[in-house]
TrEMBL record:
Residues 491-679 form the Alpha-L-arabinofuranosidase C-terminal domain. This is non-reducing end alpha-L-arabinofuranosidase. Its EC number is 3.2.1.55. Residues 1-24 form the signal peptide. Belongs to the glycosyl hydrolase 51 family. Keywords: Glycoprotein, Hydrolase, Signal. It comes from the Bacteria. One of its GO terms (biological process) is L-arabinose metabolic process.
Length: 689
């Protein structure tokens, strides 16, 4: 952090020129002009948003707070996440079966346990959770499971939340087992707080019993929903006031093969009927192999729409365009009509099957049309009725969808054309987000951008992961774009401290301040750039595959990285119209590592100036607010600064680097201010509306 001895202005919250050291006072101020009386392009009200992908245990083991891993025994015949107590010494058999399950085609497997007559000790199983189970003292957790008794006298079981030292944190007995499947529920209240507890189920009696859909779910969820989300993580999202939420990815959308693609229809309805699937990130990186990474889809498309509504963000679902990930198989759906599923006018499609599905492009198009109906259709429509049945009869007011994630080449473009044509024909007001591929330049990027421009695409999604200096060097990227073409969606970007994809990347201040510099270019080109989002969003400190990430968490705690606070400052200070900025001496923005942008915030009547000083020295600036009327005498500043560009936040120091608020004096229409070394500063000046 900045030394409060050297820079007492930050310590006192008064970032005034006169309070800084003599060296800062002697430097000649850099003169900038903000043309307050010449407002330019409107800033999209949804400009800064969120990109969610189920990577780094972002869903199961993260935002979705189910504590039991592999609760339905559908993911792995080797009982992933479970183990027999005492290594199985008290059980004759314990194995996954599929005869006469709970009568659900997507949940056919269950666990059969047979206890050993006369054996001592505990007969049962325990679940490890997602790198443990986080429980809080005094909090309640709902236990639920299905059970069926076989031969013998097993009449029930005892469920225990067990701490890391084997201590009991909560316990409840459940009885009344019969020879028919029945759901049982109980509540456990934890007597302690632990990050890595686990759940133990001990049978009462001897004989055989079948178990399925074993769940331990916190009662304290966002809006107290039974299938709700983790409160601290949602709060971090809501605090950003995001304009949109892009979901569910990311390469998750594509899958390594088409059979592993994300199919939204399998993620709605009864949670117990959602068929789990392997997560494509489980074995993608040898350095972070995660073979136990699956998707339960407890967090599905309905919950994504609901989350968007809860945090005030526009939903932006991304749909597969008939292409598996081109980094993996690159499998393509044929362009023709599916032989059994029907084309884009065939009405409701049947549920998909991961193993046997042989889809054509028309099926993917139909899925998109059905999704729009699910989100926006009346309750009298097929898919609108399904939304209503889940408890949301009002439409979600979906306004945009993504056509593919990060595809490239002629195979993508030839699929995009009929996809876009069909969606626009039925829903002309839906904006479509198209892909320019994974790179921000090169032949494939240029070809896609040119063709999508010819097709008058609504948005072109550009991605860039690069080292921090790339972001500072390319802050002028969109200064060079032609006006009047498709809007740009900067859909995935993050500065990398080492190299793209390196497991050594850190969420340093160097990365975050470089992103802040780049974002001045996004802001001043609001007539070109319509939306932007950092990626990835979440990472579990014990189970990540990719770094850097915006928000980190363990089973109990969470924190925003310095990049999180940069994103938040932009989102909370996006303004309504761009104001032209003239840099010192008419130099290019970014010269001498000084970056700036400005907006007016018409509802409040304030002028908002954003400044990045990527320098080891304080930098006094003099800002002429040309044409401003009725300026107030006191402005507000929010500053992030650190002497050490390698500064990071952590679970132990979650706000080691976060915005510091202060005030500053105004004199006429000139704003004098000294920027701290290595700083990102947002200045808000009251003016006449």
């Amino acid at each position: 952090m900045i030394s409060t001895t050297r820079f007492p202005a930050l310590a006192t919250g008064l970032a005034l020129l006169g309070t800084l050291g003599a060296s800062a006072q002697s430097a000649a101020p850099a003169s900038l002009t903000v043309q307050v009386n010449k407002p330019g392009a409107a800033v999209n009200k949804n400009m800064y948003g969120l990109f969610f992908e189920d990577i780094n245990f972002a869903a199961d083991g993260g935002l979705y707070p189910e504590l039991v891993k592999n609760k339905s025994f559908e993911t792995d015949a080797r009982l992933m996440g479970w183990r027999a107590l005492g290594g199985g010494a008290n059980l004759d058999t314990y194995a996954v079966r599929n005869e006469q399950g709970i009568n659900n085609q997507n949940n056919s497997h269950y666990l059969r346990l047979t206890t050993r007559n006369g054996a001592g000790g505990e007969a049962g199983i325990e679940n490890e959770g997602f790198r443990g189970m986080g429980v809080k003292q005094g909090s309640e957790y709902k236990l639920s499971f299905y059970a069926r008794r076989g031969a013998g006298d097993v009449g029930g079981l005892t469920a225990t939340i067990v701490g890391q030292r084997g201590e009991t944190l909560g316990q409840v007995a459940v009885s009344g087992f019969t020879n028919e499947w029945k759901q049982y529920t109980a509540v456990l209240k934890s007597t302690g707080t632990q990050n890595k507890a686990h759940l133990k189920l001990v049978l009462s009696g001897t004989g055989t019993v079948d178990l399925d859909v074993v769940s331990l779910f916190p009662k304290d969820t966002w809006n107290q929903r039974p299938n709700g989300l983790r409160t601290d993580l949602v709060q971090l999202l809501k605090d950003m006031k995001p304009g949109f939420l892009r979901f569910p990815g990311g390469c998750i959308v594509e899958g390594r093969t088409l059979s592993e693609r994300y199919q939204w229809k399998e993620t709605i309805g009864d949670v117990t009927a959602r068929l789990p699937m392997i997560n494509r990130w489980n074995m993608e990186f040898r350095h972070r192999s995660t073979p136990d990474y699956y998707q339960s889809f407890g967090l599905g498309f309905f919950e994504y729409f609901q989350l968007s509504e809860d945090i005030g963000a526009e939903p932006l679902p991304i749909l597969n365009v008939g292409m598996a990930c081109q980094y993996n198989s690159g499998e393509l759906a044929p362009m023709g009509t599916a032989s059994t599923k029907g084309g884009p006018n065939a009405g409701e499609t049947a549920p998909h099957n991961h193993a046997t599905d042989d889809p054509s492009l028309d099926m993917f198009i139909q899925d998109a049309l059905d999704l729009i109906e699910f989100a926006n259709g009346p309750v009298s429509s097929t898919w609108g009725a399904k939304r209503a049945a889940m408890g949301h009869p009002a439409p979600f007011n979906l306004k945009m969808i993504g056509v593919g994630n990060e595809q490239w080449g002629p195979q993508y473009l030839e699929r995009y054309v009929p996809f876009a044509k069909a969606v626009k024909a039925k829903y002309p007001n839906i904006d479509l987000v198209s892909s320019a591929g994974p790179s921000p330049d090169g032949e494939l990027f240029d070809t896609a951008s040119k063709r999508l421009g010819e097709l008058k695409a609504d948005y072109i999604d550009e991605h860039y992961y690069a080292k921090a200096d790339w972001f500072r060097a390319h802050a002028d990227r969109y200064d060079k774009y032609a006006r009047g073409g498709p809007k740009i969606f900067a859909g995935e970007y993050a500065a990398q401290s080492v190299n793209t994809g390196s497991p050594e990347n850190k969420n340093t201040w160097d990365c975050a301040i470089s992103e802040a510099a780049f974002m001045t270019g996004l802001e001043r080109n609001a007539d070109v750039v319509g939306m932007a989002s950092y990626a990835p969003l979440f990472a579990n400190v014990d189970a990540w595959q990719w770094t850097p990430d915006l928000i980190w968490f363990d089973n109990l705690n969470s924190y925003g990285s310095p990049s999180y606070y940069v994103q938040k400052l932009y989102a909370l200070n996006k303004g309504t119209k761009v104001l032209p900025v003239t840099m010192p001496g008419g130099a290019k923005n970014g010269t001498d590592n000084l970056f700036a942008s400005a907006v007016t915030d018409e509802p409040t009547g304030e002028v908002v100036v954003k400044l990045v000083n990527y320098s080891t020295s304080p930098r006094p600036v003099s800002i002429n607010l040309a044409g401003a009327k009725g300026l107030g005498k006191t402005g507000r500043a929010q500053t992030m600064a650190s002497d050490d560009l390698q500064t990071q936040n952590s679970l132990k120091e979650p706000k080691k680097l976060a915005p510091q608020e202060s005030t500053f004096a105004m004199k006429g229409s000139t704003l004098s201010y000294t920027l701290a070394p290595n700083s990102f500063t947002v200045l808000r000046v009251p003016a006449k509306k």
